Amino acid sequence: MKRPGMLLVNPWIHDFAAYNLWARPMGLLVLGTRLRRLGWEPQLLDFLDPSDPDAPRPKPMAHGKFHRTVIPKPEPLQDIPRRLSRYGLSPAVIDRELRSLPTPAAILITGVMTYWYTGLQETVRVLRDAFPGVPLLLGGVYATLMPEHARRSCDVDMVWEGPGEQELSEMLYRVTGLRPSGGEADSDLEFTPALDLLRRVEFMPLLTSRGCPMKCAYCASRRLVSGFVQRPPRLVIDEIAKGVANYGITDVALYDDAFLIQRAQHALPLLRGVAERIPGLRWHSPNGLHAAAIDLEVAQAMKKTGFKTIRLGLESSSDAFHERTGHKTTRMAFLTAVGNLREAGFSREDIGAYLLVGFPGQSREAIEGDVELVLRAGAVPKLAEYSPIPGTALWDAAVKTSRYPIQDEPLYQNCTLLSCAEPEVDWVFLQRTRSRIRGALPDPAGAR
After folding, report:
1. Per the confidence metrics, is the pTM higher than 0.90?
2. pLDDT for the residue 32
3. Pairwise CA distance, residues 373 & 438, whole Å
């Protein structure tokens, strides 16, 4: 009997800026693996697909700019002096792709940033026109953090909150009336992406764990995934080996939120196993690594395994900030981590440190001090504008501080607006700070 079809959709982005930093729709790819085990036949339509011939060619190592088209701004953003764009494939390309697909039994669409919901709305309209009457389910970060807003704002049949793997079969039965005969997936398949759903596999997106045991006040990880689970290193190594054998991949992008937690039992045996069994790979950590876990042994293992793009989650050099927001790291732990990485043979250009800018109460002097500390340590500062996230511990302070009604309109949660920043921390100051960073580096291309 023919397996019923399921269409997985990664929607357009509407934003002032978007950058493809080792981005692939990991949640949908993992969901594809589980759907197959349950008896469905998934297909993926990635509106952000960088491999389409109409999109700009990706930079070396498969990251770079998304194709973009300037679009009108919605009413809440009319006074923002920036151009809004649709990021992703053109409507003409999407129409061509949709015409080539069979009618699915249901459509599963993901939503990431809360303030990208207008891109979701446009995507849903296109899907409704292409497949009238087909049930559409919305899941992902936006659906989990703001489910009621999603129900009001998006023309979908069901809003799916949280990971929901255990409820997947029942949810699909409720909207389709179909019960495929496949068996339940084992726990490790909750991590394993169906890479063959991609048009082209340019690198391996990798999850070695789910969740995070930290309780950072500005992060929603614990709301999105309850608990913290790490995979057996041998299964991860097997998955990477299959990726090399099947697709010839040479790059691995680490999607974990907490890769180095319990490093002696997890990261170290995994890295050593990969270095021994699959040498010659390049590793990238766009999500950021916990600096407090990088001792010299870890730094040397990272070097031997082939880490190329290292990002550390510093956020602030202030110990008082970390004491208030979850004890993620300390000033000294960060300096020690960078020192260990440099001793292991990494260059400044290999090591980026994310600095959170524009959060409530932060001064210009604090940002300037953070930047100088990172530069003196021998790393590259990477400014990350603060976006207020519903449900986090810092949310109430953000609501009180913001000059916009962020609790009512997700568009005001866009990090570009600096909605919770002190008046002195504006775009002119941040652009000047980025220029100073570029000027302080031996190679200006080392800081974006």
Report:
1. yes
2. 93
3. 15
pLDDT of residue 448: 38
Q: Which of 284, 201, 207 minimizes the C-alpha distance to 249?
A: 201
User: What is the pLDDT, as a whole number, of residue 178?
Assistant: 86
Q: What integer pLDDT is reported at residue 169 of this predicted model? A: 84
Rounded distance, CA 74 to CA 212, Å?
Answer: 35
In whole angstroms, give the CA distance from residue 24 to residue 207. Answer: 12
By DSSP bridging, strand 136-140 and strand 106-111 are parallel
Cβ atoms of 85 and 15 closer than 8 Å = yes
* Start-to-end Cα distance in the chain: 52
Continuous segment of H or E residues that includes residue 70: strand 68-70
Distance CA 153, CA 120 (A): 9
Q: Are 313 and 333 in contact (CB under 8 A)?
A: no
Order of strands across the sheet with 5-10? 41-46, 5-10, 106-111, 136-140, 158-159
Q: What's residue 1's pLDDT?
A: 54
Q: Which residues of the chain have pLDDT under 50?
A: 60-61, 444-448
pLDDT, residue 52, reads 65
Bridge partners (DSSP) of residue 65 are 19
pLDDT for position 401: 94
Distance of CA 109 to the CA centre of its chain: 16
Q: Which amino acid is located at 328 in the chain?
A: K
- Tell me the one-letter amino acid at 72: P
Backbone torsions φ then ψ of 136, nearest 5 degrees: -125, 125
Crossing angle of helices 364-377/331-343, nearest 10°? Answer: 30
Residue of 374, 317, 318 lying closest to 351 (CA atoms): 374
How far apart (Å, rounded) are the C-alpha atoms in residues 294 and 296? 7
Tell me, what DSSP letter sits at residue 416?
Answer: G
pLDDT at 166: 66
For 329, the token pair is 């790291």
* The pLDDT of residue 445: 46
